[in-house]
């Protein structure tokens, strides 16, 4: 008896301790909002309870400094295990080998998720889709009615949309048909690309060899965008446009779901309509982006990191997180079917639009390409006023970036 | 002496000067005015003298916002850099003035060369240097490189040269050590020059943006100008808060400006004319 | 600490260390980096010879940045110099309350550029004060505000810069004016020269070194214009300057240290040549007198 007891103690001392010893993984994430951070923390606590051998260290980043902090952590070899990444950053980190390739095991339930293509660079997957975002068309019903439209009117195609915007623009001196973004880095292109894609234009040839930003269809898209801007546009920053829209001064704006959150928080009274991006015949294609969770190549706890990612992105946790943030859509199709999204018409619009949205190419130089596109739009709206030439300039720039 | 014609002319002069003065100070007055308005109230142009007055925007920024911390950082970094400059510029300036034989010429040339090097072109190597040295995103990055500056050295050197060395020699005769002579005899004599130096360094540091901006990334280390510029980049910020933040950055400068105007002016002209 | 020689060395140490570590080393390092493809995200770099410089030469953004920088320098400096001289003349003679005017004119120069840029962003906006003033004198202001128009953005920033710095250079001019002996004016008065003639034959020639000095330091400063661009337009609407380009390439998104360093050296050489020319001018004038 005594012997056995001793053995137990010895065994516990030898092995038990190592089972208890927790692995610590570090997770850098961007949700600092007091309405959202507690949910993140709660999910992490639950994960730690379910996996007593893993401890999670949370670090908050802000959008102002996050990118730089991540870059420096890679450069100095001090990267955390798990990173929240915007979809347009994945390629630039993957190309230099800073992100771990997603394992086959982590891809087993991939059919339930949308957005994998945003995390796929040269055939390899580097991150798991967490939440998605898109832009839908919001309209002010009162202004539509004033302009003579029926109670249930929504523009069925680009032509109807344009007409309705023009009509609202003609209602009075301080009423505008369309909220048009001024030159704002990282924002303007997200407004233009829905028009671009809806018109059927492409950034690259089918074989992905050349940029075709200066095609006839691209010019048509920019022309339509410019027409709206010139004839009935309220030109301001995204924030300024939203303010004016909520004040009832603008007929249509293209916006993300944070607008819904704002209306709720600020208790704004507006007769809101949300609809899919109007296309030439069918609903059009909007802009798709998202937040992803990635394991870094430098991580020494890749299995535990993958486990955390799987837990956070589970359908139940996605619903929970989206409810808390009120400005995000789940990437999981199961989560999208949740009552929370089905019961709200505006959220439904977002879920439907996501299925028809398109994301920018996954390219390490995308941020610079994006700038080139924005410059072309700015030139057409605020500079030379030309259409074809600015697009041509941007096309040459993008081709050069891809050859770099 | 002053005839009617002279009176008219002097009247015209005052009128003209007052108009110019208005143009020069109006933007700052406007800043103060907007900073005192209620958020949501129109900042229309007729509001210079009418409308609400509230200190709520200041309270918001210094309380919940990061600006309180930024103010503290600015004071801390400003004070450290100013003290460093008083000491180190004095030391070097004194050496240049008194020990002419030791690499004097070389050092002097270096001062002039540095004056001519455009600081902004070295932002990249500076960034890499700080990163490699592990000083990036620390207070050291904001203080260490700026502890001594060539204009300050120049100022001290000019001043020390105008002091006869007799007092130092007398002290040396009495057996005082060099350090003692330096700190107890010469430094007090240089007080006017050091005051000019201090105010100049403090202002430059208080207002500087590019280096503090590129050498830090954490909100806890931002100085006032950096925090303000980033506040503006933030979507949801309104003019009232932005102008209140700006006022917080300007008020200390304004007070020092009124108190130490003479030193400031002689700092500008001394640095300029002597060359 | 006892021999004067070692004392001197110790005393000069802080400056020596700062000079080597924070001035000369970055300058050399930057030069070396300009010949590599060093990027923060990539651990190892390669020597690429002159290829960064070749790319710069063909980069339309860099061309535009240099053009804007030259527009800025050439546009602001004459105006600033002339206005500063005018202000100095206005407040130089003894009259009551001139101290207040001097202080008021100088005040913007001691204010943070970030603050000034923020205030002017407000003043220049659509429906702002400047737009109102423009309408008052019958001009039509740009539809979306002065900073949101390619035709006015850079010039608006330049105007702000002149407004901000004239007070500083006014003080330097004032010191220069004070250094002119009164006897010269008295002699001219006796010789029957009018005020205008006195200004042309005495004041202006004697102020020349001061004016040239002002032009030299103002150009070195203006070639590096950055903060106002960063705060007001982020380089949009054709306002990106050379330092903004360096910042954008090197520290904003892609951390292309090699390329940005090469751009910095091009700017450095331009400034050096510009300063050298101005110094040569300054010397020759002195020799002439």
Oligomer: heterotrimer
Largest interface: B-C, 81 and 88 residues
Please state the structural category of chain C.
mainly alpha
At CATH level 2, the architecture of the largest domain in chain A is: 3-Layer(aba) Sandwich
Number of strands of chain C: 0
Mind explaining what this structure looks like?
The complex is a heterotrimer of chains A (404), B (275) and C (289). Chain A has 404 residues and is an alpha/beta fold. Chain A has helices at 2-20, 37-50, 66-75, 90-94, 141-146, 158-169, 188-198, 216-232, 238-246, 258-265, 302-312, 315-325, 333-336, 339-342, 345-355, 366-382, 388-403; strands at 23-29, 54-60, 82-86, 120-121, 124-125, 128-134, 136-140, 176-181, 233-236, 250-255, 272-275, 288-295, 329-330. In chain A, the strands form three sheets. In chain A, strands 2-1-3-12-6-13 form a six-stranded mixed sheet. In chain A, strands 9-8-10-7-11 form a five-stranded mixed sheet. In chain A, strands 4-5 form a two-stranded antiparallel ribbon. In chain A, α2 links the parallel β1 (23-29) and β2. Chain A is globular. Chain B folds into two domains: 4-56, no CATH class; 65-273, MetI-like (MetI-like fold, Orthogonal Bundle). Chain B has helices at 4-35, 56-63, 67-98, 104-116, 123-132, 139-143, 150-161, 166-173, 178-189, 191-207, 210-215, 224-233, 239-259, 261-273. Chain C has 289 residues and is mainly α. Chain C has one domain (47-288): Orthogonal Bundle (MetI-like fold), CATH 1.10.3720. Chain C is built from twelve helices and no strands. Chain C is globular, with a radius of gyration of 24 Å. The model of chain C has no long low-confidence stretch (mean pLDDT 88). Chains in contact: A-B, A-C, B-C.
Keywords:
heterotrimer; B: 275 residues; mainly alpha; MetI-like fold; 0% strand; C: 289 residues; globular
What layout of secondary structure does this protein have?
The complex is a heterotrimer of chains A (404), B (275) and C (289).
Chain A: H1 2-20, E1 23-29, H2 37-50, E2 54-60, H3 66-75, E3 82-86, H4 90-94, E4 120-121, E5 124-125, E6 128-134, E7 136-140, H5 141-146, H6 158-169, E8 176-181, H7 188-198, H8 216-232, E9 233-236, H9 238-246, E10 250-255, H10 258-265, E11 272-275, E12 288-295, H11 302-312, H12 315-325, E13 329-330, H13 333-336, H14 339-342, H15 345-355, H16 366-382, H17 388-403
Parallel strand pairs in A: 1-2, 1-3, 8-9, 8-10
Antiparallel strand pairs in A: 3-12, 4-5, 6-12, 6-13, 7-10, 7-11
Chain B: H1 4-35, H2 56-63, H3 67-98, H4 104-116, H5 123-132, H6 139-143, H7 150-161, H8 166-173, H9 178-189, H10 191-207, H11 210-215, H12 224-233, H13 239-259, H14 261-273
Chain C: H1 4-33, H2 51-58, H3 60-92, H4 98-106, H5 113-123, H6 129-136, H7 153-178, H8 182-190, H9 195-223, H10 227-232, H11 242-252, H12 257-288
């Amino acid at each position: 008896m005594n012997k056995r007891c001793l053995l137990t103690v010895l065994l516990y001392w030898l092995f038990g301790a190592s089972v208890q010893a927790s692995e610590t993984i570090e997770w850098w994430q961007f949700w600092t909002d007091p309405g959202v951070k507690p949910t993140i923390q709660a999910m992490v606590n639950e994960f730690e309870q379910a996996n007593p051998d893993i401890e999670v260290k949370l670090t908050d980043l802000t959008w102002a400094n996050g990118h730089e902090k991540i870059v420096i952590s890679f450069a100095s070899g001090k990267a955390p295990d798990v990173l929240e990444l915007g979809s347009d950053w994945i390629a630039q980190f993957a190309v230099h080998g800073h992100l771990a390739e997603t394992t086959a095991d982590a891809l087993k339930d991939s059919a339930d998720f949308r957005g994998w293509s945003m995390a796929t660079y040269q055939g390899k997957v580097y991150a798991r889709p967490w939440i998605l975002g898109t832009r839908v068309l919001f309209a002010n019903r009162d202004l539509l009615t004033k302009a003579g439209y029926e109670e249930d009117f929504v523009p069925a195609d680009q032509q109807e949309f344009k007409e309705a915007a023009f009509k609202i623009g003609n209602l009075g001196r301080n009423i505008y048909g369309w909220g048009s973004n001024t030159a704002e880095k990282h924002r303007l292109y997200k407004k233009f690309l829905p028009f671009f894609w809806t018109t059927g234009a492409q950034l690259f040839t089918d074989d992905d060899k050349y940029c075709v930003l200066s095609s006839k269809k691209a010019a048509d898209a920019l022309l339509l965008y410019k027409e709206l801007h010139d004839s009935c546009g309220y030109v301001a920053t995204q924030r300024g446009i939203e303010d004016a829209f909520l004040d009832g001064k603008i007929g249509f704006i293209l916006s993300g779901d944070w607008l819904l959150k704002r209306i709720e928080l600020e208790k704004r009274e507006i007769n809101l309509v949300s609809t899919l991006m109007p296309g030439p015949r069918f609903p059009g294609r909007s802009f798709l982006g998202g937040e992803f969770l990635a394991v870094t190549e430098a991580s020494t706890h890749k299995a535990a990191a993958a486990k955390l990612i799987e837990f956070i992105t589970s359908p139940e946790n996605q619903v929970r997180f989206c409810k808390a943030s009120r400005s995000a859509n789940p990437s999981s199709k199961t989560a999208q079917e949740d009552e929370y999204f089905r019961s709200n018409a505006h959220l439904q619009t977002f879920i439907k639009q996501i299925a028809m949205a398109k994301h920018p190419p996954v390219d390490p130089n995308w941020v610079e390409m994006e700038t080139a596109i924005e410059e072309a739009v700015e030139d057409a709206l605020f500079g030379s006023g030309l259409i074809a030439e600015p697009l041509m300039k941007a096309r040459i720039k993008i081709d050069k970036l891809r050859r770099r | 002496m002053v005839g009617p014609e002279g009176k008219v002319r002097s009247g015209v002069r005052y009128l003209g000067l007052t108009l110019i003065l208005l143009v020069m100070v109006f933007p700052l007055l406007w800043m103060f005015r907007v900073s005192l308005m209620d958020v949501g109230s129109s900042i229309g142009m007729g509001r210079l003298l009418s409308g609400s007055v509230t200190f709520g925007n200041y309270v918001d920024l210094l309380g919940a916002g990061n600006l309180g911390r930024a103010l503290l950082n600015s004071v801390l970094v400003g004070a450290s850099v100013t003290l460093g400059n008083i000491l180190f510029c004095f030391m070097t300036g004194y050496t240049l003035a008194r020990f002419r034989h030791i690499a004097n010429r070389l050092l002097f040339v270096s001062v002039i060369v540095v004056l001519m090097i455009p600081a902004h072109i070295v932002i990249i190597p500076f960034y890499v240097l700080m990163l490699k040295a592990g000083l990036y995103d620390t207070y050291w990055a904001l203080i260490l490189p700026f502890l001594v500056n060539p204009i300050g050295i120049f100022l001290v050197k000019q001043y020390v040269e105008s002091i006869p060395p007799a007092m130092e020699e007398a002290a040396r005769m009495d057996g005082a050590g060099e350090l003692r002579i330096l700190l107890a005899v010469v430094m007090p004599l240089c007080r006017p020059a050091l005051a000019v130096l201090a105010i100049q360094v403090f202002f430059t540091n208080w207002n500087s943006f590019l280096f503090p901006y590129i050498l830090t990334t954490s909100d806890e280390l931002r100085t006032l100008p950096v925090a303000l510029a980033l506040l503006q980049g933030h979507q949801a910020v309104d003019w009232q808060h932005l102008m209140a933040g700006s006022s917080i950055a300007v008020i200390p400068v304004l007070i020092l400006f009124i108190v130490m105007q003479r030193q400031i002016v002689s700092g500008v002209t001394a640095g300029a004319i002597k060359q | 600490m006892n021999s004067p020689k070692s004392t001197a060395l110790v005393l000069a140490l802080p400056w020596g260390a700062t000079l080597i570590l924070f001035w000369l080393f970055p300058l050399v390092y930057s030069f070396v980096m300009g010949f590599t493809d060093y990027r923060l995200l990539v651990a190892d770099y390669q020597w690429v010879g002159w290829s960064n410089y070749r790319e710069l030469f063909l980069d339309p953004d860099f061309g535009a940045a240099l053009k804007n920088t030259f527009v800025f320098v050439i546009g602001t400096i004459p105006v600033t110099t002339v206005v500063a001289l005018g202000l100095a003349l206005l407040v130089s003679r003894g009259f009551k309350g001139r101290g207040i005017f001097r202080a008021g004119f100088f005040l913007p120069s001691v204010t943070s550029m970030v603050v000034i840029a923020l205030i002017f962003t407000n003043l220049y906006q659509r429906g702002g004060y400047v737009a109102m003033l423009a309408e008052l004198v019958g001009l039509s202001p740009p539809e979306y505000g002065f900073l949101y128009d390619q035709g006015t953005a850079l010039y608006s920033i330049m105007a702000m810069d002149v407004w901000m710095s004239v007070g500083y250079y006014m003080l330097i001019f004032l010191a220069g004016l004070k250094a002119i002996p009164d006897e010269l004016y008295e002699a001219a008065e006796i010789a029957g020269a009018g005020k205008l003639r006195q200004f042309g034959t005495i004041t202006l020639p004697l102020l020349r070194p001061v004016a040239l000095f002002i032009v030299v330091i103002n150009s070195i400063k203006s070639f590096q214009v950055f903060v106002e661009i960063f705060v007001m337009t982020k380089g949009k609407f054709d306002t990106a300057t050379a330092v903004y380009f360096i910042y954008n390439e090197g520290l904003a998104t892609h951390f292309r240290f090699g390329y940005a360093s090469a751009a910095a050296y091009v700017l450095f050489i331009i400034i050096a040549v510009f300063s050298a020319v101005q110094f040569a001018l300054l010397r020759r004038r002195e020799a002439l007198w």
